[in-house]
Amino acid sequence: MKTSSRPQYYRIRRMVQMVREGAETGDLPNSSDFMREFEVSRRTVARDLDFLRDEERAPLEYDDARHGFRLTDETYTLPPVRISRKEAFSFGLARKLLAHYEGTPLHLDMRSVLDKIAESLEGDITIEPDWLSEHVGVMPEDCVRINPEVWAQIAGFIERREEIRATYQTFDGRISEYMLRPYHLLAYHGKWYVFAWNTAKERVATFALSRFHSITPTGATFDRPSDFDNEAYARNGIGPGFVFSSNITAETVLEGFSIETAAAYGDQSGIVCDGGSPVIRGCRITDCGLYGIMCTNSAAPRVEGVTVDANNCGIGCMAGASPYIVNCVIADNINAADGGGVYVSAGSTPTLMNCTIAYNSALGNGGGVASRGAPKLRNTIIWGNTATAGDSIHRFTGTIDIQNSDVEGGWAGMNIDDKLMKAMTVTKVFKGVTYETLTNEEFIKLAQREFPTLRLHDEYDAAKETDRLEE
């Protein structure tokens, strides 16, 4: 904000501060100093000084000998700021919204700012905190925690226009060194990014702050191109391939698409179901720097026969999402946070039927599945995944209902003998080009043929199970 556009309450408070500072240094401020500070006219300064004396009762007088203004009463303080009921409501809501960024470097700074504002407010007009908590809710996004020092370093380099040498881990796990000229910081869907000029490839690219291993200045400075538009780049460089909003129902079918959103150029999702519930069938979603498929805001899409591979995270389920995922392969995804194959946030209830979740990894928890919600898995294979904790599955909170499935390392709920997976790898190629998914009937027949002594649910009926889950 330009200094000249600051509101009057800011200017008068700054005037009092300048007068106090002048009394300490012996250099009292005058009207010319105020004009330079606020970039306003002499007439505006005169009005502000009159307001201070007449409305705020400031004991302010001009010292002819010292050519500046001083306070005749050193104990004088400006009265608290007066706000309306509407403003009080907005302030209270701002404090709730701040929780949305808990765990980010800005949280403590912004909390301190809001606390200082609160201390300066009068209490004539109030809104009960209990009322706000009861009637206004904020469902925060799942945030990737980053090192506050990395955020501060990047912000400083942007301000000083300094070139940096960075060691960075790409979404597919490769660690490389880059020479970058950082342009702009952006928060998007719980993650922090920096737009930076990649000197080797001579183009602007997007980098996730959570993936930086080290950053050092090169000593060189640069001029950012005057025609670089942060907002335009964000619209084009970060965003999903398809978005389905809340008015989209199962009458909308996305079928047979190969979706690749070029994660090297920006962290994006292949498909975002933002409250929408389409049918997604027979697609392949690959090389997306955010999610292959992200379901949020109570979205309930039906995902059939889809391959989700080599993304930052295979499928993300947030904010009450309840997708029905059947006959899908979720493989070779690498997440810098939690949940390589599937991530489920609190309140979300996805169902996975007859799926293969294999060879995914997470630098956090849950290489195959990480959950704070209540997913249901039926007739599903979870194998060959890796993570810091919980290679196959990591449950933070909530419940995970698994039946008739094969989970490497075991899991409660009719877990089929681990040897069964060895027979299945004959018909699957996880690391190659071909991905084949068994139907429910084929899965049971294979188990009975390879392990005739192994008993599954005697009464298990795939069609009935599907019907029950869809109710």
Descriptive account of the structure:
There is one protein chain. The chain is of the alpha/beta class. The protein has four domains: 3-71, Arc Repressor Mutant, subunit A (Orthogonal Bundle), CATH 1.10.10; 85-135; 148-235, SH3 type barrels (Roll); 240-470, 3 Solenoid (Pectate Lyase C-like). The strands form six sheets. The chain has a seven-stranded parallel sheet, with no helix packed on it. The chain has a seven-stranded parallel sheet with strand order 9-12-15-18-22-26-30, covered by helices on one side. Helix 2 crosses helix 3 (42-54).
The major sheet is characterized as: 7 strands, parallel
> Which structural category fits the helices and strands?
alpha/beta
Number of domains: 4
Shape: elongated
Helix content class: 25-40%
Which range does the strand content fall in? 25-35%
Rg: 29 Å
CATH topology of the largest domain: Pectate Lyase C-like
Question: How many helices?
Answer: 11
